Amino acid sequence: MTADATHADRSTVTAVPVQARPSRLASVAVDSYALMAAFVVLAVGAVAGFGASTGASASVAALIAGWSASWSP
Amino acid sequence: MALTINPAGSGTRTRWVVDSGVFYLGALLGALGSLLVVAASFALLSLVVPSGWLIPTAVVLAVPPLLYQIGLPVPLPYRRRQVPEWWREALPLRVAAFAYGVMLGFGFATPFTSSAHSAMLLALPFLHGIWPVLGVVALFATGKTSVLALGQGTVSHGDVIDRLPNELRSAGRRWSRRLAGAGATLLVLLALLASR
Question: What residues contact B92, with CB distance under 8 A and at least 6 apart?
Answer without folding.
Answer: none
